[in-house]
Design a protein that fits this description.
single chain; about 90 residues; mainly alpha; 2 domains; two-stranded parallel sheet; 3 helices
Length: about 90
């Protein structure tokens, strides 16, 4: 089956976690929250199990993780450039 055909196949009941609270220091824009609410309602109408979830981490943990990933990718890019003989 093609990818498009696969997308039209039934999925069965999905378990979907929905975050309705902010995950850090920045509040969610009302437009974004409305889109989340609409999507959650549609998923429930489709028969899926929608559950509210809490952030899986504290904001400082997210910041540390993001900084580590950024450093890793920057370091990897520099190494790759040196290997290829590019500045």
């Amino acid at each position: 089956r093609s990818y498009v055909e696969e997308l039209s196949q039934p999925t069965g009941t999905l378990r979907v976690g929905v975050a309705r609270t902010k995950w850090g220091e920045v509040d969610c824009e009302p437009e974004v929250l409305n889109a989340v609410e609409s999507t959650a309602a549609l998923l429930e109408e489709m028969g899926h199990n929608v559950t509210d979830i809490e952030p899986p981490y504290e904001p400082i943990e997210y910041l540390r993780s993001n900084l580590a990933k950024t450093f890793f990718f920057a370091t990897s890019l520099e190494e790759t450039a040196r290997t290829l003989g590019r500045p």
